[in-house]
């Protein structure tokens, strides 16, 4: 495969490209094939070459991120889908909005999650995962470090394109912060001990929660994200809250630089699909309701046939047999 341009490319587009590949095991027969992967920065190519077996976990992490993003926003005006084919997130991902903040956080978390899960299961665990590790500040000391390894891998792989642009860029500072916020979602479970579950004593351990839990936490952080702007403090550029009324944000919070568009109307230039043709809930007053989702344009109502299982009976032993019931339902779509 020919050498690709190594100009810094948004890592999200790279992850989306990997997510759409049928399998990387067939593509990456050896480390030299890493140079043919679309959009990788130079250091990402080197990581791929050193740990080529980990790239299928990167692909799986990207798939998790896309699936979770589309689940969390399925009833919003922006539903994590755009016009650009492979570019699931599209230009929305590079506009400095709170949507971009969520995308970076969920993608970074997805890679850390998938690599950790694969390592914990021992799936095709090669010696290179433990012996050729060269991430700053990480030393391997056994399987208890699976989570630390997943986070270290995500930091090295996902953050690299932003760092290669230079952290003096406001957008790079924003993306790096949100990448880390995604990795900081608490991956700890606890069990209470004591009379009637009084929790006098708690036993806690690091564990991988379902990724849906990670998505739920990041969606809450999306709702409470802080708008920031760059400020020079000595020789450093920092991101500070745009309004003095905003509370200082923490390393766990999401931040964004510019206000989001309303996502109402189709705008190919901005990668916005619009809400025309989307199904809405006529009785809801939330974001999925026809008034809000259709942006006041109104909606059309049609009847559609729905087939459901009904009259189910248990038969000894051991099966359940159901009939198929057909009935008409009203479907509402935005004009």
TrEMBL record:
Primary localization: secreted
A single cellular component GO annotation: extracellular space
Family matches, as Pfam families: wnt (PF00110)
Top-level taxon in the UniProt lineage: Eukaryota
Compartmental location: Secreted, Extracellular space, Extracellular matrix
GO BP annotations, alphabetical order: canonical Wnt signaling pathway; cell fate commitment; neuron differentiation
Annotated keywords: Developmental protein, Disulfide bond, Extracellular matrix, Glycoprotein, Lipoprotein, Secreted, Signal, Wnt signaling pathway
GO molecular function: cytokine activity; frizzled binding
Gene3D superfamilies with a match to the protein in the record: 3.30.2460.20
Listed InterPro entries: Wnt, Wnt4, Wnt_C, Wnt_CS
PANTHER family: PROTEIN WNT (PTHR12027:SF104), WNT RELATED (PTHR12027)
Protein family according to the UniProt entry: Belongs to the Wnt family.
Function: Ligand for members of the frizzled family of seven transmembrane receptors.
Protein name: Protein Wnt
Species of provenance: Gopherus evgoodei (Goodes thornscrub tortoise)
């Amino acid at each position: 495969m020919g050498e690709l341009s190594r100009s810094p490319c948004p890592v999200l587009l790279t992850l989306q490209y990997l997510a759409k590949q049928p399998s990387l095991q067939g593509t990456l027969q050896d480390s030299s094939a890493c140079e043919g992967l679309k959009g990788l920065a130079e250091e990402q190519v080197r990581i791929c070459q050193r740990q080529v077996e980990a790239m299928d976990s990167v692909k799986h992490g990207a798939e998790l991120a896309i699936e979770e993003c589309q689940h969390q926003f399925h009833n919003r005006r922006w539903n994590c889908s755009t016009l650009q084919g492979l570019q699931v997130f599209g230009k929305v991902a590079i506009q400095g909005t709170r949507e971009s903040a969520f995308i970076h956080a969920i993608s970074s978390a997805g890679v850390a999650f998938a690599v950790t899960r694969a390592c914990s299961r021992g799936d095709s665990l090669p010696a290179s995962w433990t012996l050729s590790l060269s991430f700053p500040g990480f030393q391997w000391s056994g399987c208890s470090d699976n989570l630390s390894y997943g986070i270290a891998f995500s930091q090295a792989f996902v953050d690299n394109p932003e760092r290669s642009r230079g952290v003096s860029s406001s957008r790079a500072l924003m993306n790096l912060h949100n990448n880390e916020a995604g990795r900081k979602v608490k991956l700890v479970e606890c069990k209470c001990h004591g009379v009637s579950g009084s929790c006098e004593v708690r036993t806690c351990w690091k564990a991988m929660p379902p990724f849906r839990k990670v998505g739920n936490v990041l969606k809450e952080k999306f709702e409470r994200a802080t708008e920031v702007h760059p400020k020079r403090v000595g020789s450093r550029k920092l991101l500070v809250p745009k309004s003095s009324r905003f509370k200082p944000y923490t390393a766990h919070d999401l931040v964004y630089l510019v206000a989001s568009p309303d996502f109402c109307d189709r705008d190919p230039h901005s990668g916005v699909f619009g809400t025309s043709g989307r199904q809405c809930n006529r009785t809801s007053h939330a974001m999925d309701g026809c008034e809000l989702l259709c942006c006041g344009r109104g909606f059309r109502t049609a009847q559609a046939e729905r087939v459901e299982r009904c009259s189910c009976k248990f038969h000894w032993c051991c099966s359940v047999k159901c009939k198929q019931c057909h009935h008409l339902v009203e479907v509402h779509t935005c004009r």
